[in-house]
């Protein structure tokens, strides 16, 4: 697992491991990154479906309840295929844009 921290945002990349192991490692490392906005880069997973993305729902809800952004990045699953509670975008730039917009919303109290 690779962490790339820039300011208050940490991007998490996975090395060649299976999704369940990646999730387990992410949950173990979560206390170290829980105060950052998180971008979870899932591009290295060759096969990914909406059910796989839903595995991140609990962690996403926990993170968002702490007033931090949590964005999954993959072009294999459309945001239309997952519940509104989980944020999925197809590019890293869109993930950064989402975090910026959410920070503005939080600053405005929306």
Low-confidence stretches: none
State the order of secondary-structure elements, H for helix, E for strand.
EEHEHHEEH
Total DSSP helices: 4
Side-by-side strand order of the widest sheet: 1-2-3-4-5
CATH class membership: Alpha Beta
Shape verdict: globular
Distance between the termini: 34 Å
Determine Rg (CA atoms, Å).
Answer: 13 Å
| Main structural class | alpha/beta
- Name the CATH superfamily classification: STAS domain
Strand content: 15-25%
Could you tell me the CATH topology label: Transcription Regulator spoIIAA
**Overall mean confidence score, pLDDT:** 91
The largest sheet, given as strand count, sense and whether it forms a barrel, is: 5 strands, mixed
The figure for the number of domains is: 1
- Shape-level CATH architecture: 2-Layer Sandwich
Helix content: 40-55%
Number of strands: 5
Account of the protein in words:
- With 110 residues, the protein is of the alpha/beta class.
- The protein is 42% helix and 20% strand.
- It has a five-stranded mixed beta sheet with strand order 1-2-3-4-5.
- The N and C termini lie far apart (34 Å).
- The model has no long low-confidence stretch (mean pLDDT 91).
């Amino acid at each position: 697992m690779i962490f790339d921290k820039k300011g208050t945002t940490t991007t998490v990349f996975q090395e060649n491991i299976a999704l369940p192991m990646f999730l387990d490692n992410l949950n173990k490392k979560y206390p170290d990154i829980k105060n950052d906005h998180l971008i979870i880069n899932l591009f290295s997973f060759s096969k990914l479906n909406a059910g796989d993305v839903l595995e991140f729902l609990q962690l996403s809800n926990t993170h968002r309840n702490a007033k931090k952004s949590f964005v999954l990045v993959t072009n294999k699953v459309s945001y239309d295929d997952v519940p509104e509670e989980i944020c999925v975008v197809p590019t890293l730039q869109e993930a950064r844009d989402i975090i910026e917009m959410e920070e503005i919303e939080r600053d405005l109290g929306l």
